[in-house]
Amino acid sequence: MARIQAGIGCSHIPVLGFAHDTDKEQTDYFKPAFDGFNWTRKWMKEEAKPDVIVLVYNDHASAFDMSIIPTFAIGTAEKFNPADEGFGPRPVPVVEGHPDLAWHIAQSLILDEFDMTMIGEMDVDHGLTVPLTMMYGDVEKWPVKVIPLAVNVVTYPPPSGNRCWALGEAIARAVESFPEDLNVQVWGTGGLSHQLQGPRAGLINKEWDNAFLDKLIGDTQELRKVPHIEYLRETGSEGIEMVMWLIMRGALGKSTKALHRHYHVPVSNTALGHIVLEPVDNSVPPSPTLEGNNDAAQAMID
Amino acid sequence: MSKQDIHSYLAEFDDIPGTRVYTAKRARKGYQLNQFAMSLMKEENRKRFKENEEAYLDEWDITPEQRKALLARDYNTLLDLGGNIYFLAKVFSTDGLSFVQAVSTMTGMSVEEYQAMMNAGGRSPVGLRSIKEKN
Ligand SMILES: [Fe+2]
């Protein structure tokens, strides 16, 4: 049986990918940002060793233009190439997918009344590849399979925080019903506070960001109720990406324990946040839907 | 959570100082503008655009205002005309500008001033949360 071993929250700031790719991790400007990942890189390599990551991120007008705006899309391909975001693709390994688990999750989620979009072919941008770099550093090949889960946080309205949390819970139920023994992590990426547009650009809110990190730990569900307008006012127009972290948090079940935490300002225009969480007992509530609770329906998708 | 209708949901966005939330209304207005920007993801298109911006823009069904703002790289106006920052990023990347360089042009600060503000911890939200509440 597959199980969710840990959840990671991490900003996906493009310039960190650039710093890595051009060997600038140890420069004065970037060192404090990268140092916060030393613990995680070691832990990933020596202890956690996940088989698969469900990597929640958003596309930044790379794979999707304005012609299609999926709210929740799951990548079911064998592989995903790093996207050319305007200056050539990042020189990082091709991302290997896990089509069996991806389709299992997609089908399970739909029975659980999350109407997913399935993507059979897609390039992945910095939103997905930067967190991989932060957690694995320099590698010939990513030592893990990745299921991209793209969330619309660009065109309003994005999904609510509550919906994201509930999706995480449904992902946890789906993972648990996958027969193969797999060590799975769920990552939520983006944020923390930043605004890339208009006269208010450059906004950073350390207090709010840290309160957000605090509330990912333990059994509080307060973050489910934070409305979009609060992210916008308090954390800048692009701070809304933090709703994606709630998918990760929801997937960890009732309660979490923090293994590692890091916050640093600034990286380019953005507050860098990073947290590693462990589920206390992996308990998520049963599916509230008829199909999701229905044994016969479950049997058809296994 | 109490239910909120889409009208009051959207109305609140206009109360945030110095911010254009990318609503459906803006997305519809800026559809062609953003699709034009997206075309610059391809090297051959970047090259053609750089060679002759006016001629390249002739191929796109954008408004005269959008065209003018594009040629002037007036990003605040482009946001008003339905541009989205992640799409407009293709334009400033083509110009060889970083996010910090391009974003600073929307703030009325020089790149150096903006960079210094970021290095000092960024712009405080105090006084910039709500126009009505002045907080
Ligand atoms: Fe992002």
Automatic annotation (TrEMBL), chain A:
<dbReference type="InterPro" id="IPR004183">
    <property type="entry name" value="Xdiol_dOase_suB"/>
</dbReference>
<dbReference type="GO" id="GO:0016702">
    <property type="term" value="F:oxidoreductase activity, acting on single donors with incorporation of molecular oxygen, incorporation of two atoms of oxygen"/>
</dbReference>
<feature type="region of interest" description="Disordered">
    <location>
        <begin position="283"/>
        <end position="302"/>
    </location>
</feature>
<dbReference type="Pfam" id="PF02900">
    <property type="entry name" value="LigB"/>
</dbReference>
<feature type="domain" description="Extradiol ring-cleavage dioxygenase class III enzyme subunit B">
    <location>
        <begin position="8"/>
        <end position="272"/>
    </location>
</feature>
<protein>
    <submittedName>
        <fullName>Protocatechuate 3,4-dioxygenase</fullName>
    </submittedName>
</protein>
<dbReference type="GO" id="GO:0008198">
    <property type="term" value="F:ferrous iron binding"/>
</dbReference>
<keyword id="KW-0560">Oxidoreductase</keyword>
<keyword id="KW-0223">Dioxygenase</keyword>
UniProtKB/TrEMBL annotation, chain B:
<dbReference type="GO" id="GO:0018579">
    <property type="term" value="F:protocatechuate 4,5-dioxygenase activity"/>
</dbReference>
<dbReference type="InterPro" id="IPR036622">
    <property type="entry name" value="LigA_sf"/>
</dbReference>
<feature type="domain" description="Extradiol ring-cleavage dioxygenase LigAB LigA subunit">
    <location>
        <begin position="33"/>
        <end position="119"/>
    </location>
</feature>
<protein>
    <submittedName>
        <fullName>Protocatechuate 4,5-dioxygenase subunit alpha</fullName>
        <ecNumber>1.13.11.8</ecNumber>
    </submittedName>
</protein>
<dbReference type="InterPro" id="IPR014159">
    <property type="entry name" value="PCA_LigA"/>
</dbReference>
<keyword id="KW-0223">Dioxygenase</keyword>
<dbReference type="InterPro" id="IPR011986">
    <property type="entry name" value="Xdiol_dOase_LigA"/>
</dbReference>
<keyword id="KW-0560">Oxidoreductase</keyword>
<dbReference type="Pfam" id="PF07746">
    <property type="entry name" value="LigA"/>
</dbReference>
